[in-house]
Amino acid sequence: MARATTASATRRLGMSRLAWRDAVDGYLFILPWLAGFVVFTAGPMVASLVMVFIDWDLLTPPMWAGFANLERLVNDRLVGVSLYNTAYYTFWSVPLRLIVAMGGAMLLNAHVRGLSFFRTAFYLPAVLPIVASSILWMWMYNPQVGLFNQALQAVGLPRLGWLWDPELSKPSLVLMSLWSTGNVMIIFLAGLQSIPAGLYEAADIDGAAWWDKFRHVTVPMLSPVILFNLVMGVIYSFQVFAVVFLMTGGGGQSAGGPNNSTLMTVVYLYRIAFEQFKMGYGSAVAWLLFFVILIFTLIQWRLSDNWVYYEGKK
Fold first, then answer.
1. Per-residue pLDDT tens for 270-303?
2. Residue 159 has what DSSP assignment?
3. pTM above the 0.85 mark?
4. DSSP 196-218
5. How many CB atoms neighbour CB 31 within 10 A?
6. How many CB atoms lie within 10 A of CB 187?
7. Where are the domains of the chain?
8. Which residues make Cβ contacts (< 8 Å) with residue 132, sequence separation at least 6?
9. Architecture, CATH, for domain 68-306
């Protein structure tokens, strides 16, 4: 009976018995991932969307709030502050990380002695625990005994407040973001090694200088990799949390100081949901951030047609 049912289903779908078996096997193989996605990603997303319209503090029964959380979202000054801080961090750190990572990848792609050592050294900061990196950079930024201020004082320049100065706190975080470009650098290195050597040989025959080869060969052939790193970098930067939370949340104060100058959107979301226990309003902020990231991703994808080169694309 089961065999007849399967045969009838395959005839209705226009599939051979072998194709039907392959499809079933494929779904069985992805079933663990699919179950994990539904339980740990799609399910919480749907639940958070429902909580946007609910007032719940985790301790008392949830109550229907209607559009109250959305109205508060529009009138909350700190939401605008957090979005500005996050956009500032993103629009400075992402391009600088791409430039540093691409430059480092081009150096690592050169044939020099000790190449394995340099590749390991450049990639090592990317695998260091975020807590260890934060402690190291807090020491270097320390206004009294920090390495940076000692270097400035050694050349006759005044000390700076770095993270403790509202004017320099965001640039300090941007500077720190350049420390861990190893993962981006590895992707650029893989892209560089996939460029056919014949293109550079043809450019040499035509008498092209190194800048011409970089502009007309390296960048076009590497443009899909640049797009990937750009999109992932923007998504990652808009969700920055751990570094800010660890480096600005000490002294009994909430993370995001001084004077909310490093209050990123995810940090503010943490304050709302897990310090003030306003889960409904926290969900509203989370969905706002989701749509902001989605919009920027779609913009990058749409504009990529003008500068990204794919081999074989007409």
1. 999 999 999 999 999 999 999 999 999 999 999 9
2. P
3. yes
4. -HHHHHHHHHTT--HHHHIIIII
5. 10
6. 17
7. 2-51, 68-306
8. none
9. Orthogonal Bundle (1.10)
